[in-house]
Amino acid sequence: MKNIFVVSDIHGHYDQFVQVLSFWDKKDTLVILGDLIDRGPQSLQVIQKVLALKDEFGDQVIVCLGNHEDMFIDYLNFPDIKQDRFFKNGGLDTIRNFQAQLPNDFMTVNPVMQVEMIKEKYAREISMITTSKIFVIIGNVLFTHAGFDSNFETIDNTSAEDFLWIRKHYLTQNRTPYINVFGHTPVHLIHDSSDVWVSEDAKYIGIDGGCYMTGQLNALHISEAGEILNIYKSVIDPPNN
């Protein structure tokens, strides 16, 4: 029986990430459900930590794409028209974090040149992001960043955009064979707490502690059968931003 350790929505909060990783049993699969970046102070360090883990543990470490990585990819592909959207949604914090290892004139050049500098300096980091999975199924558990289109009994009807961006899918009964573990929606919007939320029928599990607002990063230890084995959290004083 395979067990999985799951983290989501780190948003550049490296210290919380390292704290919850201390609970990870290295025999278990590590799944990160996206939004490694933006809004927090150390997005680059989070990405590089995940890269180091993938170098050490290989396919035992699985990264899913989040909607913030999706915006980052859009920015890299279309900097002239996507920069404002990315920057306004926390991407400017990420770029400022990247800037420490970029040329001094980085912030003064046009967006196209900025992106070329980023691509040249951070090729491995970008490759990891762009090759991240849209969703992962392990045993009876469907791992997604945001969720899936719960109007259907199968995930085959869910678009890539919905896996990354959907909201309130958990308000509709999950008729798929899978338990859905998801991030994206801070759980205090679901049950007035930053702790992991489990639906009454246990077919939905929300784990986003809203770390960039609350300082709380949650981690879930779950079996491939969908049994919750443990829940962990790292709580650091909420950020001032």
Automatic annotation (TrEMBL):
Species name: Solibacillus faecavium
UniProt-listed InterPro entries: Ap4A_hydrolase (IPR050126), Calcineurin-like_PHP (IPR004843), Metallo-depent_PP-like (IPR029052)
CDD domains tied to this protein: MPP_PPP_family
Highest classification ranks of the organism: Bacteria, Bacillati, Bacillota, Bacilli, Bacillales
Name used for this protein in its record: Serine/threonine protein phosphatase
Positions of the Calcineurin-like phosphoesterase domain: 3-194
PANTHER family, alphabetized: METALLOPHOSPHOESTERASE, ZINC-DEPENDENT ENDOPOLYPHOSPHATASE
Pfam assignment, any one: Metallophos
